């Protein structure tokens, strides 16, 4: 079992008193970062969301900084079982901390892979996922058929020059995602393993669309 997330280090965009009844957007950082990394995006995201940036539970091997959701070193790198365990730790945190409103996930790299794995584990629990420079884990889960039936919206943005995510994982995601989710997104020319202004604009358009669907406004 992966270590549980620490609620004491979660960054929230709104105090507890202002969260009731609002949709929750959870930010999941990438390898070697922490909860402060994606929290810097808050000014670019719709303020109708309550936004929570969580910290991954593992510390990468020295001298790597920050935290990670699963190990990527050696022969065990990117083992789907590790992704599932990390996604389950996220689900336990959500069970304890999320309110009654709808929940969306936005992850970068490792965090995006965890967001997609959490969606697969509980297809009915999430309104949408934003996958930035991530991938769908290989292998089958017993809940994949339910996901394919629900087909929740997923935005996938990635750089054409991203050399961090192995090509076989990208190709698997290209083949797998359209059969299980309502996929939209874009490949950004010249972009490496990072997030661009154009991508942030597209994410904002996607999130505004999801808010309209959730609130009817």
Summarize the structure.
The chain is an alpha/beta fold.
Characterise this structure:
The chain is an alpha/beta fold. The protein has six helices and seven strands, in the order E-E-H-E-H-E-H-E-H-E-H-E-H. Helix 2 (80-97) crosses helix 3 (110-121). The relative contact order is 0.15. Belongs to the AB hydrolase superfamily. AB hydrolase 2 family. It holds the Pfam family Abhydrolase_2. One of its GO terms (molecular function) is hydrolase activity. This is Phospholipase/carboxylesterase.
Key traits:
217 residues; alpha/beta; Rossmann fold; 6 helices; 17% strand; globular
Query: Which residue ranges are poorly predicted, with pLDDT under 50 across at least 5 consecutive positions?
Result: none
CATH topology: Rossmann fold
Report the total helices.
6
The CATH architecture classification is 3-Layer(aba) Sandwich
CATH homologous group name? Alpha/Beta hydrolase fold, catalytic domain
Report the biggest beta sheet as strand number plus sense, adding barrel if it closes.
7 strands, mixed
> From N to C, what is the helix and strand string?
EEHEHEHEHEHEH
């Amino acid at each position: 079992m992966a270590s549980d997330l620490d609620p004491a280090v979660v960054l929230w965009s709104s105090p507890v008193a202002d969260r009731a009844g609002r949709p929750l957007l959870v930010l999941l950082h990438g390898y070697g970062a922490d909860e402060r990394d994606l929290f810097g995006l808050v000014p670019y995201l719709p303020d109708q969301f309550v936004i929570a940036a969580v910290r991954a539970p593992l510390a990468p091997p020295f001298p790597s900084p920050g935290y990670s959701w699963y190990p990527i070193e050696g022969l065990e790198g990117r083992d789907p079982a590790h992704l599932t365990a990390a996604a389950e730790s996220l689900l336990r945190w959500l069970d304890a901390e999320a309110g009654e409103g709808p929940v969306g996930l936005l992850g970068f790299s490792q965090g995006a892979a965890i967001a997609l794995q959490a969606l697969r584990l509980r297809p009915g629990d999430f309104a949408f996922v934003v996958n930035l420079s991530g991938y769908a884990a290989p292998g089958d889960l017993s809940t994949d058929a339910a996901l394919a039936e629900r087909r929740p919206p997923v935005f996938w943005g990635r750089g054409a020059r991203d050399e961090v995510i192995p090509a076989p994982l990208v190709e698997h995601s290209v083949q797998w995602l359209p059969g299980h989710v309502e996929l939209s997104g874009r490949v950004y020319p010249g972009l490496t393993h990072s997030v661009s202004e154009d991508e942030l604009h597209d994410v904002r358009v996607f999130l505004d669309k999801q808010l309209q669907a959730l609130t009817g406004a």
